[in-house]
Design a protein that fits this description.
Elements (H helix, E strand, L loop, with lengths): L1 E3 L7 E6 L11 E10 L4 E3 L9 E9 L1 E5 L2 E5 L3 E5 L5 E4 L7 E9 L3 H7 L7 E4 L3 H16 L5 H16 L11 H12 L5 H7 L4 H12 L3 H19 L4 H7 L5 H12 L3 H6 L1
Antiparallel strand pairs: 1-2, 2-3, 3-10, 4-9, 5-8, 5-10, 6-7, 6-9, 8-11
């Protein structure tokens, strides 16, 4: 996974490329997954891409981005999914929307990629849907973890996760059941990406008290910040145990645990299996 940072502390870009020669012969395969977070205005045009021959699925986690096509333009906001076909000239920018945004992008290629997306109900133009994106976000993150493992024996899991993601995107659009504030989205992102910072410090960075953060999580997500972080760690742990050769100690360190015994105890309370037992299943 590439992780590039500029002098801007609020800029983050990470990219996971799928490298598997066997998959290049598949009708459809995941090309890459990328995550971008910016705090300053940005402009991009598809004209900068020499071979724009992939479909993209885009969700915005925070901020607002203005997309412009030859005969259409719209704003992508949290709670929306954009499905974009190849070969259509477009641009997007955040100059007129405040500059700041955070998004996830999954790109797909393949010899029969167009026919596949058409069968899912996507026409030749861009499709913007208002959706509850929590499940789609989770599937993109799980696909990225599998891609990052670069394990040839996990190709079936990679392809299965890709199909699960694309069929989830293709289901009938629905309104989010519970509105989630931008503050809560930022809190979730920080809890997922930062395994070490204490929760009171995360609340301080968001400009709120620990009590306010706890209340937001209980009212909107029916959980606590600590449980949310722990559950996300457990999901990552399961994927790493199945998809990597990292030792239990290395996985514990990756997830921010002080030692492997603390991690193993928490994992067993969650799954009724030790990490080593889970890896053998």
């Amino acid at each position: 996974m590439a992780d590039n940072r500029s002098d801007d502390p609020e800029f983050m870009y990470s990219r996971s490329d799928f490298i598997n020669e066997t998959a290049l012969e598949f009708p459809v395969y995941p090309y890459l997954v990328e995550e971008v977070r910016r705090s300053r205005s940005f402009f991009h045009s598809s004209d900068r891409i020499r071979h724009y021959n992939f479909w993209t699925v885009v969700i915005l986690l925070a901020g607002k981005v203005h997309y412009n096509y030859t005969d259409n333009d719209f704003f992508l906001e949290p709670g929306m999914v954009l499905v974009n076909p190849p070969g259509i000239r477009h641009s997007f920018e955040s100059r007129t929307t405040g500059g700041r945004y955070h998004k996830l992008v999954a790109e797909f290629k393949g010899a029969e990629i167009d026919a596949f997306f058409h069968r899912l109900g996507f026409a030749h133009g861009p499709v913007l849907q208002k959706r509850d994106t929590a499940v789609i976000r989770q599937l993109i993150c799980e696909l990225r973890l599998l891609i990052d493992s670069h394990q040839a024996n996990l190709l079936p899991q990679v392809m299965g996760k890709m199909y699960e993601l694309l069929y989830s995107v293709a289901v009938n659009p629905v309104e989010p059941s519970t509105p989630v504030s931008e503050l809560l989205r930022n809190a979730c992102w920080r809890l997922e990406e930062d395994d070490f910072t204490p929760i009171p410090d995360i609340a301080a960075k968001l400009g709120i008290s620990r009590a306010t953060l706890d209340r937001e999580f209980r009212e909107k997500l029916q959980t606590t910040p600590a449980d949310y972080r722990r559950n996300f760690k457990m999901k990552r742990a399961k994927i790493l145990l199945r998809s990597s050769d990292l030792s239990v100690k290395e996985i514990a360190e990756t997830l921010g645990y002080c030692n492997q015994f603390h991690f193993s105890g928490e994992f067993k309370r969650e799954t009724n299996l030790s990490p080593r037992e889970y890896r053998k299943t």
